[in-house]
Design goal:
4-stranded mixed β-sheet, binds guanosine-5'-monophosphate, 42% helix, alpha/beta
């Protein structure tokens, strides 16, 4: 079923591999755009230290998640790293109806579903400045073993292969520059960040081939 109801606000989808700096960027965006709201997702993954239920995620068990899915309560849902994640349709609709722009921070599988069900959404993919920098960020952040880091790196490379499906791409090299580009996209001025832009496409190809 298509979500064709007229909405006052705009819906944005932001996707990035881990290590691209998405969370920091998105926090800055919300500071700079007071009308922007995050949608709080539902997940079956265990709550991490410091996370707040109802703020970072709604933490639910698999039965509750499956019941919500059956009841059609998710605008999109996906399995990421073995856990279920979903966006509440009613939460998004009521934020949009209240005049807020809404930002979904979800993976590429979910982004695909939102684009199919909500064609007016705008989707943004965030890339790291280079593959070695992505690896460095994954290594410095994690206390994980080499095996876990290698797996994350493999997953991140797989995520990166989906960038062309998005309306916009932002390379997060210097944070404030990347944030400024994203603010431009939200303001409807991001033509140089369109994934159809030839200069940007060449830059991303070089990045992914390790020439940068
Ligand atoms: P984490 O568990 O580390 O917070 O998130 C893991 C991944 O799940 C990230 O790529 C994040 O963007 C994605 N994710 C978080 N919430 C949702 C959601 O509601 N739907 C989908 N499809 N992905 C989500």
């Amino acid at each position: 079923m298509k979500d064709a109801a007229p909405a006052a606000g705009k819906l944005y989808v932001v996707t990035a591999p881990s290590g691209a700096g998405k969370t920091t960027m998105v926090k800055r965006l919300v500071e700079l755009r007071p009308q922007l709201r995050f949608s709080v997702s539902y997940t079956t993954r265990p709550q991490r230290a410091g996370e707040v239920d109802g703020k970072d995620y709604f933490f639910v068990d698999q039965d509750r998640f499956a019941a919500m899915h059956r009841a059609g309560e998710f605008l999109e849902h996906a399995t990421v790293f073995g856990n279920s994640y979903g966006t509440s349709r009613s939460q998004v609709q009521s934020l949009l109806a209240a005049g807020h722009d809404v930002l979904l921070e979800i993976d590429w599988q979910g982004a695909r579903q939102v684009r199919a069900n909500w064609p007016a959404c705008q989707s943004i993919f965030i890339l790291p400045p280079s593959l070695p920098e992505l690896e460095r960020r994954l290594r410095t952040r994690a206390t994980d073993s080499d095996a876990v880091i290698s797996r994350r790196l493999g997953e991140a490379r797989d995520d990166l292969s989906h960038w062309e499906e998005f309306d916009f791409a932002v390379i997060n090299d210097e944070l404030e520059t990347a944030v400024a580009i994203a603010v431009g996209i939200l303001a409807g001025e991001g033509s140089q960040a369109r994934t159809t832009d030839q200069a940007l496409r060449a830059q991303i190809s070089a990045l992914l081939q390790g020439n940068q």
